[in-house]
What we know:
The structure is a single chain. It contains seven helices and nine strands. It is an alpha/beta fold. The protein has one domain (6-78, 124-281): Zn peptidases (Aminopeptidase), CATH 3.40.630.10. Strands 2-3-5-4-8-1-9 form a seven-stranded mixed β-sheet. The protein has a two-stranded antiparallel ribbon with strand order 6-7. It is globular. It starts with 5 loop residues before the first strand and ends in a 17-residue tail after the last helix. The relative contact order is 0.24.
Amino acid sequence: MAAPHLLGILLLTATPLLAQEAVDTAAITRIRREGFEHSQVMQFARTLLDVYGPRLVGSRQYRRNPNVLVAQGYWSHLDGADEHPPSFAVAREHYTRLAHLLDAGVRPRLEVSLAARFSTDDSMGYNVVAEIPGTDPRLAVEVVMLGGHFDSWHAGTGATDNAAGSAVAMEAMRILKAIGARPRRTIRIALWDGEEASDNYAGSEGYVRRHFADLEKLELRPEHAKLSAYFNLDNGTGRIRGVYLQGNEAARPIFTAWLAPFRDLKQAAVVMAAVVYHTTMRLESMPRLRLPAPRGRP
């Protein structure tokens, strides 16, 4: 993981910048108080890590409590299943010990046992989606999204990658709900499946293909125009130390103003909640970069 902890963003809708970006100090005060005095981020993390445990794509463990979550299927995990046969992962210290034995002229003998089971009762992958509806009659149809990937590798509980990001996004939503925030735009959280087990980020990419764009032709769907911004957190644990602009310099003064009140503290869920809240309350959507031209076209 990179040393600085950044809040990744994808900004997709155009708008002119205001001369002075507004900062709702009263809302920030409520967000900070709720985040400091009533935080549940560790409860969210413990549930993901200790109750759910490893959240391997397509496993029963991933779908342990399906009735608690709003889920959207997007692809079949059986596609190309033979390309990834069962295998062993050896911890570094175990590998090092074997290497030391070989260096010493000792030929170690290993006894291994592998029991594999393929679950075919449900071959779909699932994203976890929930939202706080917007209240502005004109802007409620627009959406501000936040999230991270929910699945983990099979050999661990995925604390850093990415239960931390999922727990922070969940806590940010809880904070906004707890303080009675009335966002002008709809706030939608999406926890993605299929990030670790696929080369094409199947959960998030499947959602984009269904809702926002044909990625090959770069043809936009109607929902794309209603998306103001997506904030993604998948950089490990720790403080949020900045925002990755992805080359979008038009967004710099906006985030500079929003992050200024947190110079004394960069608690991840509080910062994420404040940034998401301010995005929903702007008169205009967030500025964006131009989409690249489709391949083979001028």
